[in-house]
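User: Assemble these into one structure.

Assistant: Restating your components, then the assembled model:
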Amino acid sequence: MSAAPVTARAGLRRRLSDLLVLRPGVLLLVTLLPPLAWMVVVYLGSLVNLLLYSLYGVNDFTGQVEPRLTWTNFAQVLTTPSNVDVVVRTTLMAVCVTLACALIAFPIGYLMAFHARGARKAWLYVLVLLPLWSSYLVRVYAGRLVLAQDGVISSVADALGLRGALDGLLRAPVVGGPSLASSYLGMFLVFTYIWLPYMILPVQAALERVPRSLLEASADLGARPRATLWRVVLPLAVPGLAAGSIFTFSLTLGDYIIPSVVGAPGFFIGQMVYTQQGTAGNLPLAAAFSVVPIVIVTAYLLLARRLGAFEAL
Amino acid sequence: MNATSSSADARADVPPAPTERVAVSLRDVSCAFGAVKAVDGVSLDVREGEFFSLLGPSGSGKTTCLRLIGGFELPSRGRIELFGRDASRLPPYARDVNTVFQDYALFPHMNVRDNVAYALTVRGVGRRERWRRAEEMLDLVKLSGFGDRRPAQLSGGQRQRVSLARALVSAPRVLLLDEPLGALDLKLREEMQSELRGLQRQLGITFVYVTHDQGEALSMSDRVAVFAGGRVVQMGSPRDVYEFPRTAFVARFVGSANVLDGALVGERPGRMFALRPERVRLEAPLTPGAVQGVVEGVLYQGAMTRCEVRVAGVRVSALVPTSAGVPAVGESVGVTWPADALRPLEDAS
């Protein structure tokens, strides 16, 4: 008597497992359904919503969002001089930060992939990842303290008798300012520091996949180390540099905290989005601003593919 | 005979006698990785124009030896000379030797033409000259017209040829080949063996060839060095090494000979003898002069059949022509061999 329900349940489980094994399509559907639902509803849903909002109008009189399609928001972003300034400023900063990250990340990735072994390699990983273990906000403020008027950099400059050089740097047009913490130069340094791990890791991963025999073959065929670096290592690091630059580039384009904590008063795209949807209450204009990074990154990816950045993948 | 170029072509089978000049010379070279001595006191001379094979099982030090010649490892002791000049400490790019790597090591981000021309590119040769010579090399390895492809679009055999063309384009005086045919299937391997040999004769370049395949080493080489445990255990012509193995290891590794105690074969007990399976004959039991044995295993191999025979507690392999009739398992047989088939070895039992 008591055995009957057990077998029934076992039978049900058996039938269920038979179904999953015999129909791989069902199994695939079951495993993919939750992530697919997430992607479609939360991710694509909000993306489409964002794009829609960027095309909605705002009633000039009441300030209410009106669901009628219009290009005015984009026209405002692309024609109002102060808005164009914001876009140009943010893009230039993103380009500079990306270049600096690439310049710093390549030697480190090279060291990690080809020269570090065992415990030293593990330590390098820890050092690269260590900043990611602490809060982003803490690191930004720490950066500001380092750069501040009486911060670490300025006291080191004093101690080394380089005060004049630092002041000269701060007097430079555009990048300078009253102190490092309130200049574009300082903002650039903090951005570079914060996003650096996102460049190092893909570069290192790309170089890790390069067989050592390629370097040996290059030397064997007469290439000195520098030629090997230029002709073999660097081209094979390009997919990693491309992947890393997507991170650093788009993260800089979208960030609003660093520009508000460190640096000169000029607005960045992220801050525009923040103020437009918050204080100003102009959600459609905020949406239009946030479409700008999407467009720029897409254009950048197409260009990178055109230049063959992904061919060695 | 006078080796004018036309007569050399006519007798393509006869190697142009290697000159007496030494191309590569290793003097008491050792190479240690930590506590492991990968190469332990190796001395050998490769003559100019010679096809020289380093033969041995994996871990015997043959590849390390090749890497020492190429400059990828530095000797912890001893001296390496290339054409009479000390090269022990020279980096790979300063040595006039090129390598064909086991994994081909083709640059994935370059097409075949740029791969082949690489040695010329880094020497600053102009593009037109570079491409002309690359195309010449691709002709030589029968890959003309493949210049625009990527390595990833080629088959294993084709990659092998590209790698060969790339190593030859700068006309090195010595070519090092690290098990270049290891990844190819049997048919392709046999084809490439004769092609490589032909190429070596045509170009007159010294080849140093690493392999673990004794058949390959015997059929291609002018001379063979047999490696075991980081040392050269025997060096000589393929015929010498095959016919007159000096140690039990060489006898077994090169041609899987039977290694038998003198007591069993009617010689001095305590001395070891090599007996090639193909020289063993199986006769009717009680044939006069035969040693009695029982067939324990029969392995059909096509033209020949391998029979394992137990003789006085010892297994003896015999390779007999299948067409001459093969005994069944469990059958008693008389085992004989010609007197000159027994080769004394240096090892004591």
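Residues 53 and 206 of chain A are 39 Å apart (CA to CA).
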